[in-house]
User: Which sequence fits this backbone?
């Protein structure tokens, strides 16, 4: 986890310091090799020279009916909420910042935010609560500059729990937003 | 086949013209000749179901109806009457009079039985014809007139329910729930489906309406349609299903938001919905024909679960505007909403009684969800359920029963009970996770 964080920070400096400068999609890089990333020569980079890496930043694809859905291994895929609340907690800010950065500086893909709840309210109330949890993260990202059109939100209420025990431990794991990315052009 | 069945059911209950066989005619003739004149239906009901204080159950003699499957018919009648908690059908093993013997009050008095059903059923092609008579032991004569019904054989159970309803109406001057239906969402192996069952859990049918998530079916006031919420792909939408034509129509969808169907308005032209298409979940009226929406309740927080009073159209709903999920009442559009619930950390799922006087709802108490009732001003709070998690109450059309979902049996299933909390029994099938039940208003 630490290694990945360090790598991420290095990448951030290499790519993101001057704001939103996009790079050639690694898949279509001139070199013909999909694996070499070129850096922004615009200055501000702490390390000089090209950075090579063995893979495109850790995409782990998610199986499902739709293709092109993935998570980033170096970015946490969830943030959590207090009971019956949907305000973004302080602990969630770091994750949201990384997501904003990915969307703004590393990819033109879409973000899908899923809102979830524990099962203590009614299904309807929880569907609405999950909706507000997803919107809440969405609003935060928009405030960071992410265009609204690149974010899709959906609530699953209490319908897709990760666990079903009637304990605070399980309930707190269910009170979450889950983040997925989706390749554009699909 | 299904369509034919549905049509039959809607037309059924035009009472059969009395085309009688000689046997039946003789039966009736004997009955009327050998008795005194049948008593006229009096204004005062023979059995008063409106009395609040507990009273002794009325003991009934439900004699086996003579003829093919007659005892099954009697069985349906006995179970229906038994569930009301008002009648006590005595077991036929104790009877002193055979089904074919002429009614004699002296045979029933020793068992403290007050009313007796006797009848005959015969087959005619694809139909059953049944003639039934209800006797008063105390007066030693018929109550009202004998009754005849004709029904296609596939509607056998409905025939039994109809006879029970006739008895109930004769004795209490009220119509019963015995011919009513309940809708719910069931899932088996992940896929959710819309189900409709007779009130007693029999004749369960599905309609092929599916969704990854399927929620909140609501009946139109004439019970010909169901409105519901379905998630298909990643879009929530509100659909209606016409139960006669089995056609589904999408009437509203919310991209990037949730749209949840609530109650129909009493005129059946609009559905109250909760939708977040303008940012936060608010309550709107959705016109079922034009698809247009009109804002009813809007706040910065969560406004959800609109329940429309069948009496005056007032809207009870769920809101967290005060900091926690509570139930509010907006008596008219544009008027400020009033908070109704004052006890408990989370109060949700309001449902009106048919007379618009009471609300059933769910309160989180003692670590569980339980069903409560209160008057429409928030007073007279009563807890009805105590074991397991009990949610999503919905009143029967006569206001004397409720259907709800519960996990008291281990997994989520649909139960019915009397409106005072007694007599709970499961009506959804074993092995199906069942929730979101709604009792049809007709």
Assistant:
């Amino acid at each position: 986890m630490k290694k990945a964080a360090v790598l991420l920070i290095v990448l951030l400096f290499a790519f993101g310091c001057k704001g939103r400068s996009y790079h050639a999609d690694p898949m279509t890089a001139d070199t013909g090799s999909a694996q070499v990333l070129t850096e922004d020569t615009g200055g501000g980079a702490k390390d000089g020279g090209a950075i090579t890496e063995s893979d495109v930043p850790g995409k782990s694809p998610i199986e499902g009916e739709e293709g092109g859905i993935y998570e980033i291994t170096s970015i946490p895929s969830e943030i959590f909420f207090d009971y019956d609340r949907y305000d973004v907690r302080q602990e969630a800010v770091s994750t949201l910042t990384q997501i904003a950065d990915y969307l703004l500086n590393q990819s033109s893909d879409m973000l899908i935010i899923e809102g979830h709840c524990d099962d203590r309210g009614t299904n309807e109330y929880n569907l609405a609560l999950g909706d507000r949890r997803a919107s809440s993260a969405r609003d935060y990202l928009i405030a960071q500059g992410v265009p609204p059109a690149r974010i899709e939100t959906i609530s699953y209420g209490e319908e897709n729990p990760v666990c079903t025990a009637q304990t605070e431990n399980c309930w707190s794991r269910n009170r979450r937003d889950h983040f997925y990315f989706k390749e554009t052009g699909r | 086949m299904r369509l034919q069945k549905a049509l039959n059911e809607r037309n059924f209950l035009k009472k059969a013209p009395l085309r009688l066989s000689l046997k039946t005619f003789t039966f009736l003739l004997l009955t009327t000749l050998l008795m005194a004149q049948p008593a006229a239906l009096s204004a005062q009901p023979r059995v008063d179901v409106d009395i609040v204080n507990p009273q002794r159950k009325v003991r009934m003699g439900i004699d086996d109806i003579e003829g093919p499957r007659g005892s099954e018919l009697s069985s349906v009648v006995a179970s229906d009457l038994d569930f009301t908690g008002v009648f006590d059908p005595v077991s036929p093993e104790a009877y002193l009079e055979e089904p074919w013997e002429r009614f004699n009050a002296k045979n029933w008095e020793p068992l403290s039985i007050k009313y007796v059903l006797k009848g005959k059923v015969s087959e005619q092609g694809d139909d059953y014809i049944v003639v039934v008579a209800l006797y008063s032991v105390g007066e030693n004569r018929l109550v009202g007139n004998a009754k005849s019904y004709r029904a296609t054989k596939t509607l056998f159970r409905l025939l039994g329910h109809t006879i029970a309803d006739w008895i109930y109406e004769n004795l209490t001057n009220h119509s019963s729930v015995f011919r009513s239906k309940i809708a719910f969402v069931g899932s088996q192996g992940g896929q959710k489906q819309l189900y409709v069952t007779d009130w007693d859990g029999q004749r369960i049918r599905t309609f092929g309406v599916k969704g990854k998530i399927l929620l909140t079916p609501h009946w139109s006031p004439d019970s010909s349609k169901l409105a519901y919420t379905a998630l298909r792909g990643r879009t929530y939408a509100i659909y209606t299903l016409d139960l006669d034509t089995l056609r589904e129509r999408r009437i509203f969808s919310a991209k990037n938001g949730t749209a949840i169907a609530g109650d129909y308005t009493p005129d059946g032209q609009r559905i109250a919905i909760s939708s977040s298409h303008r940012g936060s979940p608010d309550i709107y009226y959705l016109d079922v024909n034009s698809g247009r929406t009109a804002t009813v309740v809007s706040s910065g927080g969560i406004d959800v679960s609109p329940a429309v009073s069948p009496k005056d159209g007032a809207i009870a709903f769920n809101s967290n505007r005060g900091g926690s999920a509570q139930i509010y009442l907006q008596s008219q559009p544009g008027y400020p909403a009033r908070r109704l619930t004052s006890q408990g950390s989370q109060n949700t799922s309001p449902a009106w009684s048919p007379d618009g006087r009471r609300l059933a709802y769910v309160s989180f108490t003692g670590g569980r969800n339980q069903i409560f009732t209160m008057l429409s001003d928030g007073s007279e709070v009563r807890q009805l359920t105590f074991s397991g998690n009990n949610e999503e109450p919905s009143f029967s059309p006569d206001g004397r029963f409720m259907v709800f979902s519960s996990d008291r049996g281990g997994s989520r299933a649909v139960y019915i009970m009397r409106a005072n909390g007694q007599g709970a029994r499961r009506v959804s099938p074993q092995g199906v996770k069942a929730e979101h039940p709604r009792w049809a208003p007709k």
